[in-house]
Structure formats: C-alpha cells, structure tokens
Write a structure and sequence with these properties.
By secondary structure, the protein is mainly α. It folds into 2 domains: 89 residues, RNA polymerase sigma factor, region 2, helix turn helix motif (Rna Polymerase Sigma Factor, Chain: A), CATH 1.10.1740; 93 residues, Winged helix-like DNA-binding domain superfamily/Winged helix DNA-binding domain (Arc Repressor Mutant, subunit A). It is 66% helix and 0% strand.
Length: 205
C-alpha cells in the first residue's frame, strides 16, 4: 500500500526545511528524504558503479543525517552537507570491497598505451554546457566507465570540487597520486567523448 503523499512545496527552501526538522515537524523528515534522495542515490551510483551498493549508501546516508542533524551548524547548505555524507559513505563502500583495492599501491606513471589517441577541442560555452542535458548525460556515462581509481578522483576533484589536498585525504592517497590520476582521468574522458563532440561540431557547422 503506497505511503501518504507529501507536498514538498510546504517548505519554501532549505532554510525552512531545516527549521522544520529542528522543531520536529511530522512531515519534515519525509520531505528531506524526498527532496534529496534522488541526488544522493545518483552520487552514490557514480562512486560505486553498483545499484545495490548505491541503495545501501542511500540508506546509510540518511541514517547518518538524522543522527547528526542536531549538531549541524549551517556552515554549509543542507544539501552540501548531505552530499558530503553520501560521498563519505560511498567511499567507505569502496574500501570494504573484497578483494581489497589499495588506492595507492600501483605505479601512477602514465604508460604509452594509456595515452588517448583521439582528441577534440573541448571549448563550448560553460553556460551552454550546464544547460545541455545530452552532453551532461554523455559525460556521466564516460565517468561511469572509468576505472575505479580514476573515477573517484575525477568525481571528487571535478564534480565535488574538492581540492587536491582534500581529495587525497578522502581517498587516503598522496597528493602526488591525485595529481597524476586526475589528468589521466581527464584524458580518458576526452577520448571517450571525442566522437560525440566531433559529431556535434559537424552538426552545428
């Protein structure tokens, strides 16, 4: 039997929702989950690459959120805080995988066979890219196809916007490893998107 329908518009913004959570409004928790669950799940799926593990991250994230909410100081937005918890939960899943993958136990020198062979000048207008759902979907798929060690670095640096130092701390690797893996990941993304971007350019010519 489906649960009750909750109108998300009853809280105008994050500040109103947070205030409702703190005064323990009966609908606030449901609104919190409904508002942020889809994006939390998407973030978890990007990190883990596995729907079942992403679902587990989704559940553990909101358990952590509910437990930590009384101590949330509002220094960041509610969404940013929740997504940071989701990222940490996703990274914990990666660390628990068996056989254990050591994140910094491989040579990080770019081998000749790993250098992409296809390139296309990637210089579209940033606002256009932000609004281009088709391109965004292509980038999402290209990121998902990256090897795990490269995927998590590009997600934390280029999607989450963390610094090199913060990324290294999150992954338990050296700053040097981040600096090597990030350009490697970007090169692979450029190669993966080369045909698509070339076709777009020809279509707009």
């Amino acid at each position: 039997m489906p649960g009750p329908t909750i109108d998300l518009s009853i809280y105008a913004d994050e500040a109103a929702l947070l205030a409702a959570l703190r005064r323990q409004d009966p609908d606030a928790c449901t609104c919190l989950v409904k508002r942020f669950a889809p994006l939390v799940y998407a973030r978890a799926l990007r990190l883990t690459g596995d729907p079942d593990e992403a679902e587990s991250v989704l559940q553990s994230t909101f358990i952590k959120v509910c437990d930590a909410l009384p101590g949330f100081d509002g220094a960041s937005s509610l969404g940013t805080w929740i997504y940071r918890i989701a990222t940490n939960e996703g990274l914990m899943v990666l660390r628990r995988r068996k056989p254990q993958i050591a994140l910094d136990d491989v040579a990080d020198n770019l081998q000749p066979e790993e250098v992409p062979h296809q390139f296309h000048a990637w210089s579209p207008d940033p606002q256009r890219v932000a609004l281009d759902g088709e391109l965004r979907a292509q980038i999402e798929r290209a990121i998902a196809a990256l090897p795990e060690q490269l995927r998590v670095v590009v997600l934390l640096r280029d999607v989450e916007g963390l610094s090199t130092e913060e990324t290294a701390a999150q992954l338990g690797i050296s700053r040097g490893a981040v600096k090597v893996r990030l350009p490697r990941a970007r090169l692979r993304l450029r190669e993966a998107l080369a045909d698509y971007l070339a076709a777009r350019s020809e279509g707009h010519a």
